[in-house]
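Amino Acid Chain and Its Fold in Token Form
===========================================
What this section holds: a protein sequence and its matching fold, both as plain text.
Structure line: whole-number tokens from a learned vocabulary of local backbone shapes, matched to residues.
Purpose: to set a sequence beside its fold so the mapping can be learned.
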Amino acid sequence: MTTTLTLVAHALTPGLRGLVLGGEPAPDQASLEAARDLRVDAGTTYCGPEPAAILTAEAIGLQPVVVGALRDREYGDWTGRDLEELLATETAAVSAWLERPHTAPPGGETANDLIARVADWLGDLTEAPQHAERQTVVAVVHPAVVRVAVLYALEAPAESLRHVDVRPLATVSLSAHATAWSLSLQ
């Protein structure tokens, strides 16, 4: 069984533009218009529960199944806060969170938690009983989910997360043979 997964980072939101953590802002209209030009091959489509992910998938012309495991990282008490402001007011806590993947914002998830959640979903995707030898899947998700999926496929350490930059509407392809994922550059 071979699975091809195309991850699409959802459209730009005011939060992504302003480095605001979490929340569920609607995507920018211009970015949604740009999403209409994306062409992806999908037998099955999933998306995260954020409005930006759902609306981006619909703009591409997809009818996604919303999957909670594909949601953005949980930022706890920092949800809706500007990263620059947090760095100025809670310097030590934010620095620890940015540098150590086992550190969570108050009431939030660690990077390791997010990686484990996405890895579990990827594992479920390859283990699902299928009738075909090949399955083609698209998932429209928050850029953070794309970043951790790339780390997982490369078996890179969680500390590498800050070195992966994923822009809105970026696409990344992964392929799995049996249960082993690989980055697939085209």
